[in-house]
Automatic annotation (TrEMBL):
Listed cofactors: pyruvate
Membrane topology term: Peripheral membrane protein
Subcellular location as annotated: Cell membrane
Record keywords: Cell membrane, Decarboxylase, Lipid biosynthesis, Lipid metabolism, Lyase, Membrane, Phospholipid biosynthesis, Phospholipid metabolism, Pyruvate, Zymogen
PANTHER family, per database record: ARCHAETIDYLSERINE DECARBOXYLASE PROENZYME-RELATED
Entry PTM: Is synthesized initially as an inactive proenzyme. Formation of the active enzyme involves a self-maturation process in which the active site pyruvoyl group is generated from an internal serine residue via an autocatalytic post-translational modification. Two non-identical subunits are generated from the proenzyme in this reaction, and the pyruvate is formed at the N-terminus of the alpha chain, which is derived from the carboxyl end of the proenzyme.
Gene that this sequence comes from: psd
Name of the protein this chain belongs to: Phosphatidylserine decarboxylase proenzyme
Length: 256
């Protein structure tokens, strides 16, 4: 009786998930290195370009050693800039009516406060979670709740340290109101001591998908999330958050 053919032929032999082809290796590299948010790409390219140009000019005038030093420091600076603007993939919880952290960082406040007045909402206080982002945290912001963007309001201001309580009122900020099936949620990007640019990619009428990226704040910042009155917050000050994944609360849809 003929023996079955066990030679490595057919689809199994060419399956990229079981081989060590170049394409498979590149896929592993892409998964390990997070992409750069488009708002940070000009800065990363600019840092790389300035480094290359300066190194080339120094070497051409005979300062090869100085050019080498500049090249190494410039490369380190470019890598640090790319790291700052990284936008790693995140998986939002499957919990119905979930509200997740809008940013990576440290929870500075869990309290009640009046949402930014420029949104035109009722002036009463609402539950608020404030997350402070250090220079080492991912600075991309993520949509905290599934819904539709109904209003976006930008307000210029000062550049106090973002970990101060009054930074929520005095600093430059950009607020977004999201209408979710179980209530309205406000997320506010607040510039910090070093921040000079807030980026928001969504516009009124756009769909807001839970955990998806929607903007960033360049160099030091804070993000506040305001929840419907009566919402029970499940995080505490001092806890670290992962943007798009850490559960802040579950909306119950009770009218307020």
């Amino acid at each position: 009786m003929a023996r079955p053919d066990t030679s490595p032929t057919g689809p199994a032999a060419t399956d990229p998930t079981t081989g060590t082809s170049l394409g498979h290796v590149l896929d592993l590299v892409r998964q390990a290195i997070p992409p750069i948010h488009r708002g940070g790409r000009p800065l990363v390219l600019g840092a790389a370009g300035i480094t290359l140009l300066t190194r080339t000019l120094l070497r051409r005038v005979g300062l090869r050693r100085t050019g080498g030093v500049v090249g190494r420091f410039g490369l380190a600076g470019t890598a640090a800039t790319a790291l700052f603007f990284r936008a790693p993939a995140r998986v939002a919880p499957a919990t119905r009516n979930a509200v997740v952290a809008a940013a990576d960082g440290l929870i500075a406040l869990v309290d009640e406060a009046v949402p930014p007045i420029e949104l035109g909402l009722e002036p009463g206080p609402r539950p608020r979670v404030s997350v402070f982002l250090s220079l080492l945290d991912v600075h991309v912001q993520r949509v905290p709740v599934e819904g539709v963007v109904t209003k976006i309001a930008y307000r210029p201001g000062t550049f106090l340290s973002a970990d101060l309580d009054k930074a929520s009122e005095d600093n430059e900020r950009n607020s977004m109101l999201i209408a979710a099936p179980a209530g309205e949620v406000v997320v506010t990007q607040i510039a910090g001591l070093l921040a000079r640019r807030i980026v928001c990619d969504l516009k009124p009428g756009a769909a807001a998908h839970l955990g998806s990226t929607y903007g960033l704040i360049r160099f030091g910042s804070r993000v506040d999330v305001y929840l419907p009155v009566g919402t029970e917050i499940v995080v505490r000050p001092g806890q670290r958050t992962i943007g798009g994944e850490t559960l802040l609360a579950v909306l119950d849809g009770t009218p307020t």
